[in-house]
Structure formats: C-alpha cells, structure tokens
Amino acid sequence: MPAVQRPFTGGRLAQLAVDLTAREHQMLRELATLHLATTGQLSRLVFGEYKPASARRLGQRHTQRLVRFGLMHRFVNRSRDRKVGPPGFILKLTDAGLSLSGVDGTPRRRQRGSWQPNDAYLAHRLAISELYVRLVEQARAGGPTVREFRSEPDSWRHYTGYAGESLVIKADALVRLISGGQELSWFVEIDRGTEGPSHITAKCRAYTAYELADVEQRRHGVFPGVLFVVPTSARARVIQRVIEHQPAEAQGLFMVATDADAPTVLGTTIS
User: Distance between CA atoms of 268 and 271, rounded to whole angstroms?
Assistant: First the structure.
C-alpha cells in the first residue's frame, strides 16, 4: 500500500524548501513553467550536461523523491501504450510543489491524484514542453538564449475589442529569445494537423485583429511574430497557403515551420 501523504503545513513546506537540492528546486521551476512534462524532458532540462543515460537516471531518482515528498504527481504515459519500449511517466506539480516553485502563473484548478488526460491533450501539451526543451538545448549549444517561455494558459492574452467585447488570444506558447543582442518574440501555435484551413484562417484573423488593437505593443513594447509549428512538410504547405490568403499587410506576421526546424526558425527574425 502506498504511504499516506501527510498534510502540508507552513513549517513542513519551509523544511522541504531547505531539504531539496538545487536541482530539485530547478525541476519544480521548470515544471511550473511547462505544467506537464515527461521524466525524460525534465531530465534533459536539469541534467543536460550529463550523458543521456546518466541524465535519465538522475532525473528518475530526483523525480521519485519529489513524488514521495508530495510535490509532484506522476502518471503513466498511456499514449505510448502502442509504442515500443516502456510507457514512461508524465509529471505535474501538486499545489505544494507549485507553491515551492516560486513561479507565478495562471491559477489552475486543483487536480485529483488520479487525473489522467486523454491522448490528444497529452500529445499537444508534451509538444509544447518538447519545444521548450529543444530551445534550452539549442541555447546550451551556443544558440539564442531563452529569456522567457510561457506555455498555455500563461501565454494567453485577454483584451477588450472595439465593441467592448471580451476577447482572448489562446497562444500555445510565448517565446522570447536573445540572439546577438536582439530580443526575438513569438507567439507559437502547435499544430497537430487536425484542424481545417477555416480554423487556421480564423486564428490568423484573430492575431491580426489583436495586433491592430495595439494592446500588446502598449503592454510589452513589441508585437511578437506568430509561428505555426507543424508535424510534416505537407502540413506546412497547407498552413502556408492559408497565410498567403491573408491580407498582404498581415502576411509578414506569420511563419510556419516543422517540428524539426522550429527552434532554428524561432532564433531568426521575420521580415
């Protein structure tokens, strides 16, 4: 039988804050940013200077401690049930873990320990997390520095339309990189090839309307480019055709890249 988790008190949280290693604190911060990640993804983020096998072992060891302390929930990745190899685990913070992470984000509803998202949701969320991991790995290899990364819903933008209506831009991620002394800002849309051209058109129009509203520019000084990240070159051509049907003055706002190319494209400027 699993051990019964003791309730958290201020004193217990304070003691855990002292007892955790620097790497474990980093794991909490990274997971607070991503909301969901695999053990492998966290291992690459926190132990990236080690050889892959060593990084995996260290990641597993420390996540097991954090789960045992009640700071993380761990779920079997059932989306891998039909794939070769062990299923692996997906991690998310408990309320106590989020408190200790020191990361401010959009308040999220309390989740039961038995919570298990569906495969489509998992694939989408883990794709966001994988993009962040690859950007960090690119930075370690001498690429652009990751100044800010926010995943949904922390990346969403709420604003008021011209008619006084409440509107929201639900970007999958917000990315800010530093390259050659220049800051590059992007909204990212993770596209899994499941949405028709009309849905992509609606997204493009929503971003264009948000740019024209001048809200982002007044709040942050710049309007980010919008990158659609797609699984295949064929899907990239579909998105590109949608972009080419946008008004000429809006087309330069959008770009499309495959999963493999996305980190490199995010480190470049748009015309």
Answer: 10
